Structures are given as structure tokens and as C-alpha cells.
Amino acid sequence: MRRRLSVYALLIVCFAAATARAQDFSKVQMKATKVSGNIYMIEGAGGNIGVSAGADGLLIVDDQFAPLADKIRAALKEINPGQLRYVLNTHYHGDHTGSNPIFGKEATIIAHDNVRGRLATEQTVRGQKVPAAPKEALPVITFNQSVSIYFNGEEIRVVHFPSGHTDGDSIMFFTASNVVHMGDHFFAARFPFIDLEHGGSVEGLTRNVEAVIARVPADAKIIPGHGPLSTLDDLKLYRRMLAETTAHVRKGMAAGQTLDQLKAAGLPDEWKSWGTGFINTPAWIETIFNSLSKDGKK
Ligand SMILES: [Zn+2]
What we know:
Layout: H1 2-23, E1 31-36, E2 39-43, E3 49-54, E4 57-61, H2 69-79, E5 84-88, H3 94-97, H4 100-103, E6 108-112, H5 113-119, E7 123-125, E8 128-130, E9 141-143, E10 146-151, E11 154-160, E12 170-174, E13 179-181, H6 202-215, E14 221-223, E15 230-231, H7 232-254, H8 259-265, H9 281-297
Helix pairs in contact: 6-7, 7-9, 8-9
């Protein structure tokens, strides 16, 4: 029961944060950064947007919140006046798919099967009911494993990684520009939110991050779901954080410590600043605890 109560406390905090953010949309400014080759990153509110801009027009990865669609459009126009042709969604969460109903009217949305499945039906995310999205917001092309889009002179390889942040995440590899968009598999220098109720898993996410590290060149640029543009070294540090904090909690569980005891003890000092974002240190310990408990029962 105690565990349940603390989860609800977290939900309330998250909900309050989401509401506060919603009221601030008018003040949100888009910041575009050239990443490499054809690729740009736009930061605003919600998940970072990846942009491919060139002779074929525009392709974006994720589209933040609907009230920001006009600002996103203006930022895109400054990068390239071409037509928006494709929208790729890394996963179904509203801070990554919020402008789908607007951009879906002019561009083709592509995502994993489970993204369409979740958007098409009512979901409860962090205790908040999210209604089924309208038809224009749904991906029209879906895939189960991977899909390639040949656009602006390169192959954009979209690969599904199972049981990560959710059950429908994709990571996008811009193969010639040497850029990777990680979606919410990667929160830069912060503990990540992992959607355990919709197929996410701490160990699954860690495995997926390891697989990405193994396949990209050392000088690749990494766009995180949240946080600043990053390098492969940043992603490797994040991988070490995942492994070491998971091992820490696992050890405590094996010694018979309760969740409350683990939370009271905290994590090694090295990771202190990682708990200053959306997910604080106790929430991260709880995520690991719940994920390991769940996976152990399978
Ligand atoms: Zn997410």
C-alpha cells in the first residue's frame, strides 16, 4: 500500500508539472541548432525535434505539443522553405506527438505499430486519461521492426527497440549525416522517465542503449529525447549511470531492503545532479525497483 501511495504522489507532481507547462506555451520559444549534414534539432517544450532539410523538403522526428505547431512551422521555414513531407514519431507520448493532428493533414506520419495502436485508443498516462487521437493524428504507415526512408540524399533508418521507454519506441539513424535521434531512450544527464505501465523496462532500455552504442561511429551526434545535443561519450556516461544505479538497487533488494529504505539511502553521490530534472532520485529508485520487481515476476 505504501508503494502505491508514493506512486500516486509522483503522479500528482507530474500532472502539476504538465499543467504548468501547458499554461506557459505562449512563452515557449523555438531554438534551432544545426547538428550535422542535413540535420537540425529544434528545442521548444516537450521532446526535441529532429529535422532533415534539403532538396526533397522537410522531414521531422516528433512534434511536441499542438499549441506549438505554428511556432514549429515558423522555425522549420527558417531552416528550409520546402514542404513538410514526413513526420516520424519516436513513441506515442503527447509531448512527442501533440502536433500530429495538425501536421498529419499535410505530411505522412510514420511510426511503429504500437504507436498507432496507442494513439488510436484511450490511454491512461501517469494517472491522466488521454483520449483517442483523431484520424489525422494517426500514423498512416506503420512497421513492426524497421523501415528506411530515402530522403535528402541519405537513408534514414528507423529501428524499433522493444521494451525500452515504452513498447513502441523507435530510434532514427541518419546514416550519411552521422546523427542519431534517440527519442526518450535518452534523457541527457538526467534520470529518464520509463513508462512501465505501457511496456517500458529499465533493463530493456539499458540493453537498447548498449545496442545503439555498439552500432554508431565515435563521432556521431546524438539527439536526446530531452536535454541538449549530445555526443557518444555523453550516451556512454548515461549507459554507465543506468548500469550502476540498477546494480545499486538490485543489490539492496537482494539484501532484503524495502523501497522506502532504498529511497532513504539514496544513490552514489556521482549521480546527484541527475535527479534535478523531471525524475528526481527517489522517483528513479522507485522506477528501477518496480521494473526489476515486474521483470522478476515474468
Ligand atoms: Zn516519452
